Amino acid sequence: MIDPIDMWVFKPENWFWIVSGDESRFWSSAAGDYVPTLPDGAGITRIASEQELAAVLAVHALQGPVDLVPDRVSPAQAEIALHRHDDGVLLGQVNALIDSYPYEPVRIWWRKATFISRDHPYLAALAIELGLSDETVDGLFVAAGKIS
Q1: DSSP summary character for residue 117
Q2: Which of 57, 18, 53 minimizes the C-alpha distance to 37?
Q3: What per-residue confidence (pLDDT) applies to 25?
Q4: Residue pLDDT, tens place only, 87-120
Q5: How far apart are CA 129 and CA 79, in angstroms?
Q6: According to the model, what pLDDT value does residue 9 have?
Q7: Does pTM surpass 0.70?
Q8: CB within 8 A of 125, min separation 6: which ones?
Q9: Three-class HEC string of 6-27
Q10: Chain-wide mean pLDDT for the chain?
Q11: What is the DSSP string of 18-85?
Q12: pLDDT band at 71, cuts 50/70/90?
């Protein structure tokens, strides 16, 4: 039972959201999942998307319904994620591509960057050369972002 005094006090660790207007289920931050019904007196907020909800919850160190793709990762995080992806095969392909890349600034960027931005045009070019989809690159960034 929710204490009536606390009913309207926002507590991100125990709050409910209607996501994308879908009132058939509710995101529960306490459960870390969607639930079919709301407890009596539950605090609830409408939010536009799962991505926005994940961003709100991330501020409070809570897991949302989707993993957010980091804007950038360190080179070490990127290389470890590439290695873990398929036991080093993709990392080997990236290194071979970088070593033979015809445009010197791309080679310098990969070897000297202090961070790798998801939206960097050189990353987009390398992904195309390697045949990686946007979803695969996003997944690699999510994995890299979890490496400390």
Answers
A1: E
A2: 18
A3: 94
A4: 999 999 999 999 999 999 999 999 999 999 999 9
A5: 17
A6: 79
A7: no
A8: 106
A9: HCCCCCHHHCEEEECCCCCCEE
A10: 92
A11: EETT-TT-EEETTTTEEESSPPTT--EEEES-HHHHHHHHHHTT---SSPPPPSEE-HHHHHHHHHHH
A12: very high
Nearest to 96 by CA among 130, 61, 137, 57: 130
Taking alpha carbons only, the member of 36, 32, 39, 30 closest to residue 1 is 39
Residue 141: name the closest of 46, 70, 83, 51 by CA.
Answer: 70
CA atoms of 136 and 10, how far apart (whole Å): 36
pLDDT confidence of residue 41: 85
Residues whose CB falls within 8 Å of the CB of residue 124, separated by 6 or more in sequence, listed in order: none
Query: Do 88 and 79 meet the contact criterion of CB atoms below 8 Å apart?
Result: no
Alpha-carbon span 80 to 74, nearest angstrom: 10
Neighbours of 116 (CB within 10 A): 21
Amino acid 124 reads: A
